[in-house]
Write a structure and sequence with these properties.
two-stranded antiparallel sheet, 6 helices
Length: 233
């Protein structure tokens, strides 16, 4: 079976059941955003397998809860593409899995007292990326639900997923000993002083490069060329 079918060359694709729709159809937008979320979660999991420092037990836990979520998102994509097969539905147990995972991790991180910047370890930053992408997927699903039937559990799962990924991002920072960075409201914008500015350090020019550049520069002095000037500090 070939990867390319050429059936979408005119901007259309098929839903489950064979119905043809434009690729900017709300259903396609929704399951495409879910697929994007899944890819970002895979990107986050790759950071774990690249061997970061930190608690291996915690990192393994993060990996163990992300994998089933990826499988569920694949099923949700099929559901949004029009499949009515029960195996692609979102059950109460799927919501409970996210909630119990959140509660377990939330017990081990510091209580939130301020907004948290999306920053930290490589793994944490990737999880924050997955979180914001999942929010986009949720918005697409909500838009679809305004014109077509969408399972209440699916809507709830899309909402809960970003909370799950946010908590995972904080948990990942804790696993590698990196504190969260709280957002703070600046009283005034920082400015560079114009009275006394320190010069940036400049390395002495490499003599071989200088000689090469000097040899290749115009020397006729008639104003048609540029004279090479080398400054050293």
């Amino acid at each position: 079976m070939k990867i390319y079918t050429k059936t979408g060359d005119k901007g259309e694709t098929s839903l489950f059941g064979g119905k043809r729709v434009r690729k900017d159809n709300l259903r396609v937008e929704a399951y495409g955003a879910v697929d994007e979320t899944n890819a970002y979660i895979g990107f986050a999991r790759a950071a774990i397998h690249e061997g970061p420092s930190g608690s291996r037990e915690v990192l393994n836990f993060i990996d163990s809860v992300l994998e089933p979520v990826q499988h569920k998102l694949f099923a949700i994509g099929a559901n949004l593409a029009g499949s009515d097969d029960p195996k692609y539905s979102v059950e109460d147990s799927d919501l409970e899995f996210l909630e119990k995972s959140i509660d377990k991790m939330d017990e081990q991180v510091q209580p939130i007292k301020a907004f948290i910047l999306p920053f930290g370890t490589d793994l944490s930053s990737r999880l924050h990326l997955a979180r914001v992408v999942s929010r986009n997927a949720e918005r697409r699903i909500v838009a679809l639900s305004q014109v077509e039937s969408v399972s209440p559990n699916l809507l709830a799962y899309a909402n809960r997923l970003s909370d799950f990924l946010f908590t995972l991002a904080r948990f990942a920072n804790k696993a590698e000993g990196t504190p969260d960075v709280a957002w703070r409201k600046e009283t005034k914008e920082p400015v560079l002083s114009t009275e006394k500015q320190e010069k940036l350090p400049v390395k002495p020019a490499d003599s071989a490069l200088v000689q090469q550049a000097t040899a290749s520069s115009p020397k006729n002095g008639n104003g048609n060329g540029h004279n090479l000037k080398v400054a050293s500090s």
